[in-house]
Specification:
This protein is of the alpha/beta class. The protein has three domains: 6-203, NAD(P)-binding Rossmann-like Domain (Rossmann fold, 3-Layer(aba) Sandwich), CATH 3.40.50.720; 222-448, Rossmann fold (3-Layer(aba) Sandwich), CATH 3.40.50.720; 467-551, no CATH class. It is 35% helix and 15% strand. It contains 17 helices and 19 strands. The protein has helices at residues 14-25, 37-44, 55-64, 101-113, 134-143, 163-168, 181-194, 196-199, 210-241, 245-253, 274-287, 296-318, 346-356, 369-375, 423-430, 456-459, 520-531, and strands at 6-10, 29-33, 68-71, 82-85, 122-126, 149-153, 173-177, 205-209, 327-331, 360-364, 380-382, 436-440, 443-448, 471-476, 494-495, 499-502, 505-508, 518-519, 546-551. A six-stranded parallel sheet has the order 3-2-1-4-5-6, sandwiched between helices. Strands 11-10-9-13-12 form a five-stranded mixed sheet, with helices on both faces. β9, α13 (346-356) and β10 (360-364) form a beta-alpha-beta unit. It is globular, with a radius of gyration of 25 Å. The termini are far apart. The relative contact order is 0.10.
């Protein structure tokens, strides 16, 4: 007979919803708690708020058993033996550091509403990806509260598209236990009861201290990110020398010390995990005074962002050097296959940049098309069967929406196609507007030349009444911060990122920290020094990762 544990899961985003449903399958009673009433209502009907293969089937079965409920009422966690914290830790708006607001809110919820079981102390289990030192800080807060509870850290290792499998059949389970042996034994015994069916199959169980458990997830993600950026840097060398990066990856992948996984060159990694985790890791190292130990991750991040630039430049080159009036089809919008997650998606970022350079972009994705149409209204998004989800709307910004933060690992980057399926159906619509398909750096783009015309001025948000012969360009760069704006604030305000002169206009250099601030006058002066002429900023509008900026540059009148 399976051991029976009464469990609460606090935070029912990607991690929490999957974990709650799968714990019922292990024989437990589960209460899922979240502040989002809409999400709770959907989950209660067996509808997943996001795309994850197999999740709705698990949800339906768990709900039918009567042992799974979802609620917004925190008092429902009273009577539970064990409380999983599964909230998100997104990147802060103005730094690389993780935002711990939701974690501390979850801890306070447990302290206010949890009760002590008859058989022993309550157990608080952290699953969120957090900066090292968090578990001990939580344990200290718990020690000063009225609740008798043990804190254990149990990091998750989910991959989007395989989350159910990774929860029910993980390749390892890690327990971060307190230094107090007696309290640690209580925590270990409680988690052993939860994971008994998994452990009976021989799944490795690693017992470590708090810092080690917290470092496992971010260290693993940093290694995977490094491996991806390494092969992408090799792709740059192959481009310069005539080498074949795919064959190179095959050759070095045969070395069992290296392996072939995550050695697929492409447009880089994205999603809600790897980018923000490596940045938070760097930020925490800086706080601890050992920032030099992770300096290499800055280059990993820089290489990753550079692949997006390269994809846009290559598409521009194939279009004859200018994208204005060119029709471009982008097949695949999410950050990886079998997901509707477009957080920090390289494909979606590239699509936005192509649009920003004047291209008419048509995009599709089997799982991500629907959410993208709401987030990027200026893009023409079609269903994989060719049905237009919407037509492009003039004078609207490309905005970025972020669904509830979740934790997951990045799969091998997609190389072309719409998540590897439904390509034929998608081409029925895209084929009408495109003449040539070209596979370029993992983005399948269709390019068809039309009469070149300047369309950026028409798309300019809040444009001055008459821009005349002024040069109009769209500045768009991934700046390593999902929530911060990229670009310049209104004249007289501050420049969020180091601005540099670029081809007659002002461009934004990627990879700088948000606290590197300069004034508009600083930018103007820099432009003057580099060009010998006055380049006034006539208008700037911040719109998340993009800014439309007319630059007075009479000697260079063009659009890009």
């Amino acid at each position: 007979m399976l051991p029976h544990v009464r469990i609460s899961v606090i935070g029912c985003g990607y991690l929490g919803a999957v974990h709650a449903a799968c714990m019922v399958g292990l024989g437990h009673d589960v209460v899922g708690l979240d502040v989002d009433a809409v999400k709770v209502e959907q989950l209660g009907r067996g509808v997943a708020p996001f795309h994850e293969p197999g999740l709705e089937e698990v949800l339906t079965e768990a709900l039918a058993s009567g042992r799974l409920t979802f609620t917004t009422d925190p008092s429902a966690i009273a009577g539970c033996d064990l409380h999983f914290i599964a909230v998100g830790t997104p990147q802060q708006a103005k730094s690389y550091a993780a935002d711990m607001t939701y974690v501390w809110s979850a801890v306070d919820t447990v302290l206010q509403h949890a009760t002590v079981p008859e058989e022993g102390p309550a157990v608080i289990v952290g699953k969120s990806t957090v900066p090292v030192g968090t578990a001990q800080a939580i344990a200290d807060r718990v020690a000063g509260a009225d609740l008798d509870a043990v804190v254990v850290w149990n990091p998750e290792f989910l991959r989007e598209g395989f989350a159910v499998q990774d929860t029910t059949a993980p390749d390892r389970i890690v327990y971060g236990l307190p230094e107090d042996r007696e309290r640690g034994e209580l925590g270990r015994a409680a988690l052993d009861r939860v994971y008994a069916p998994i452990l009976e199959r021989g799944t490795p169980r690693l017992l470590v201290n708090y810092p080690t458990a917290e470092l496992v997830k971010v260290a693993a993600n940093s290694f995977l990110a490094t491996k991806i950026s390494f092969i992408n840097s090799m792709a740059e060398l192959c481009d310069a020398t005539g080498g074949d990066v795919a064959r190179l990856a095959d050759a070095i992948g045969h070395d069992e010390r290296i392996g072939r996984k995550f050695l697929r060159a492409g447009i880089g990694f994205g999603g809600g995990c790897l980018p923000k985790d490596i940045r938070a890791f760097m930020a925490r190292a800086g706080e601890l005074g050992v920032d030099q130990s992770l300096t290499f991750l800055r280059e990993v991040d820089s290489i990753n962002l550079r692949r997006r630039d390269h994809a846009v430049e290559l598409a521009t080159e194939m279009a004859g050097g200018r994208l204005v009036g060119v029709k471009v089809a982008v097949l695949g919008l999410t950050f990886k296959p079998d997901s509707d997650d477009v957080r920090d998606s390289p494909a979606l970022d590239i699509a936005g940049r192509l649009w920003g350079r004047g291209a008419t972009v048509v995009a599709t994705d089997p799982a991500g098309a629907a959410p993208v149409r709401a987030m990027r209204p200026a893009l023409h998004v079609v269903d994989p069967d060719g049905t237009p989800l919407r037509r492009p709307t003039a004078h609207q910004p490309i905005d970025e929406h972020e669904r509830d933060p979740a934790t997951e690992e990045m799969g091998d980057p997609r190389v072309g196609g719409v998540n590897g399926r439904d390509q034929h159906a998608a081409r029925s619509e895209l084929g009408e507007i495109a003449q040539v398909f070209v596979l370029a750096l993992g983005v399948l783009v269709a390019v068809a030349q039309e009469e070149r015309q300047s369309v950026l001025a028409d798309r300019l948000l809040d444009a001055p009444g008459d821009i005349g012969e002024e040069r109009v360009r769209r500045v768009e760069r991934d700046i390593g911060d999902e929530s911060a704006a990229a670009g310049l604030e209104l004249p007289g305000g501050a420049v969020r990122y180091e601005a540099q002169l670029g081809d007659g206009g002002l461009d934004l250099a990627p990879g700088h920290r948000p606290d590197e601030i300069g004034t508009v006058e600083h930018v103007r002066d820099r432009a003057d020094r580099n060009t010998g002429e006055r380049s006034d900023i006539l208008h700037a509008r911040v719109a998340h990762r993009s800014a439309l900026i007319p630059i007075a540059s009479p000697s260079r009148v063009d659009s890009r």
